[in-house]
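User: structure tokens for this one?
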Amino acid sequence: MTTITIHYQSPEGDPFKVPRPHRVDIDEQGCAGLVRGGEIGPAGYLLGFCPTVTPDPDSWGELILAHQLYDGDVLPRDLIGYYPQFTGSGEETMFGYDMKIDRIEVSA
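Assistant:
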């Protein structure tokens, strides 16, 4: 199993705050589990990453899908400054987490 840990930058208004990271486990078949941790608790599933908090429907090409990170097509350092996108509680919705990524750790 592989664990992806997403660490966030301190908020602009509170530079000494260290936000709690999110973690997602990827099984041997490449399937991701529910995201856990973070400031908001369980966040559904990680869908991808976007350079803005809310993706613009006219620029879906900017959205980097989560599996691209899991498969190694995108390097963790390429996502610094991006915002993660999660499913909502019902999985029919999508929301952007309003904290910029500081770093991503991938561990086996």
